[in-house]
Design brief:
- Helix content is about 35%, strand content about 15%.
- The protein is α/β, with parallel strands linked by helices.
- The chain folds into 3 domains: about 1-90, Arc Repressor Mutant, subunit A (Orthogonal Bundle), CATH 1.10.10.10; about 110-120 and about 365-485, Aspartate Aminotransferase, domain 1 (Alpha-Beta Complex), CATH 3.90.1150; about 120-360, Aspartate Aminotransferase, domain 2 (3-Layer(aba) Sandwich).
- A hairpin with a 6-residue loop joins strand 14 and strand 15.
- The termini are far apart.
- Bound molecules: pyridoxal-5'-phosphate (PLP).
- Pyridoxal-5'-phosphate (PLP) binds next to helix 6.
């Protein structure tokens, strides 16, 4: 049962909120406001009613309304300014990016998630597709005999993942999926009962996928050593978690690499509890330091599901990913695939197999690594001129976390200032699990999750100029924004 609240904000905007029965009053109000903001029903800049007014209209205490407002300010949904009340912040589709709604893009974009799709190797792809499709048996164009995916691709992935990522993969245990998102969704339906442990912070879209499969989420704290599962207990003390989902090579969004002791802890947790670890290796190929970081799955292929994707190395729009599964999970995952999309499209799989076999895939990754490293260096050099800011998670991937000082403008202020200059940014706030304040660092960590993959080289350079200008205006300490950009060409 839902209760509808309709009220009118001070600025005359109609505020329609609905509260699910059985929910705490503050939780209900927070959830209803978040959902109104995310869906766009409460637009950026709208002024919310004073706490006293809303409390009276909804029959809540003023303290409950103020606590809900404070929480949403901390999460970046609302802005509180002395003298001008509480207004709705601009919430970019941001960390989620995967919105059902289309929003007008801003001219500059440093939101993480998308690689430089202008560098997609169209000619290389077309040549590989021609070769692969000419050589394919005609049965490849019918319904799949084997729902795990094309045998050509599973064989080339087994070889590639073993040599490039240290994954113990055999073609029988590989299931080709429509990107990591489909893989996670299938796993959330295929595994036995129990919650999913998920890193806090993590990508909000992935939480939605898990809750959409009617799973509870347990928030796992993340510190400088990565995700910590010690709070889950072990053996029969942890019967409620069917899986934990982690990003060991480059935690999303903090960028931390999972420390060896934490890797062991994860494996011990899985062995003693009977749960599985889902390893999201979304950007594992993009490492810039000397130290390679192999896949966790190499430590125990009966308790770890390895999940990989083409989204960073080639393009998200290919919607191609893969799961390397413990033997017992292959059939349950295939059954969920059968009941949802039946199979993954075959021409793309055949083309990718050809790219991997001809080593064009490796070449593409090497080119990408050099490109993203240059872009990252330009970002880091610029940030080094802003003494009050620090960057974390710089050794890999296509994003860094820019930490903001506690005693200055908060992330919502930076995002709003950037938006006014035409630059889309993503903050840390939306990545925290709602209602799990216990796993959040006590300092309230304010930060920007800055993607350096998106856009062509020139678009990226232009976005960086705006970014540094915004930061210099807010935090000072930068003589010239453009001098650090020479290295991006
Ligand atoms: C944390 C994380 N996992 C996985 C992915 C890849 O998802 P998909 O393969 O569904 O495009 C991304 C892409 O941005 C990501 O940020």
């Amino acid at each position: 049962m839902r209760k509808d609240w309709s009220t009118s904000t001070g600025s005359g905007v109609d505020l329609h909120l609905d509260l699910a029965a059985g929910e705490g009053r503050r939780d209900g109000l927070e959830r209803a406001l978040r959902s109104a903001i995310r869906s766009g029903r409460l637009a950026a800049g709208s002024r919310l009613p004073a706490t006293r007014v809303l409390a009276a209209e909804l029959g809540l205490s003023r303290g409950t309304v103020s606590a809900a407002y404070d929480q949403l300010v901390a999460e970046g949904y609302l802005l509180a300014r002395h003298g001008s009340g509480t207004t709705v912040a601009h919430v970019p589709d941001a960390g989620t990016r995967r919105s059902a709604r289309s929003v007008a893009p801003l001219p500059h974009d440093l939101v993480p998630g998308t690689p430089d799709v202008t560098a997609f190797p169209v000619e290389v792809w077309l040549r590989a597709a021609r070769r692969a499709l000419n050589a394919a048996p005609s049965s490849a164009f019918g319904y799949a005999g084997d729902l795990r995916g094309r045998p050509e691709l599973r064989a080339s992935l087994a070889d590639y993942l073993g040599r490039a990522r240290g994954v113990a993969a055999s073609p029988e245990r590989i299931v080709v999926v429509g990107g990591y998102v489909q893989g996670l969704s299938l796993l959330a339906r295929a595994l036995g009962p129990g919650a999913f442990g998920m890193e806090d912070p993590c990508l909000p879209f992935h939480r939605e996928i898990v809750t959409n499969a009617s799973r509870e989420i347990v928030a796992l704290p993340v510190d400088g050593d990565g995700a910590d599962v010690s709070g889950l207990g072990s053996g029969r003390r942890s019967p409620n978690c069917a899986a934990v989902v982690v990003t060991p090579a480059h935690q999303y969004p903090s960028g931390v690499t999972l420390a060896p002791a934490r890797r062991r802890l994860l494996i011990e947790w899985a062995r003693s509890s009977g749960g599985v670890v889902i390893e999201d290796d979304y950007d594992g190929e993009f490492r810039y330091g000397r130290q390679p970081v192999g896949a966790l799955q190499g430590m125990d292929h009966e308790h770890v599901v390895y999940a990989g994707t083409c989204a960073k190395a080639l393009a998200p729009a290919l919607r191609l990913g893969w799961l390397v599964l413990p033997a017992t999970l292959v059939d349950p995952v295939i059954e969920q695939l059968r009941l949802t999309t039946l199979q993954v499209e075959a021409p793309g799989q055949l083309t990718l197999a050809e790219l991997i076999n001809s080593h064009a895939y490796d070449r593409q990754i090497r080119l990408g690594r050099a490109r993203y490293r240059r872009r990252r260096d330009a970002l880091i050099e610029g940030l080094a001129r802003l003494p009050r800011l620090g960057a974390a998670g710089i050794s890999a991937g296509q994003h860094v976390l820019v930490r903001l000082p506690q005693d200055g403008p908060g992330e919502a202020d930076v995002i709003e200032a950037a938006r006014r200059r035409g630059l889309a940014l993503s903050g840390l706030a939306e990545h925290w699990h709602a209602g799990h304040a216990a796993t959040r660092p006590a300092d309230g960590s304010q930060g920007l999750v800055v993607g350096y993959g998106t856009g062509s080289e020139s678009a990226y350079r232009a976005a960086l100029v705006v970014f540094f200008d915004v930061l210099a205006d807010l935090y000072g300490g930068f003589e010239t924004a453009t001098s650090s950009l020479a290295s991006v060409s």
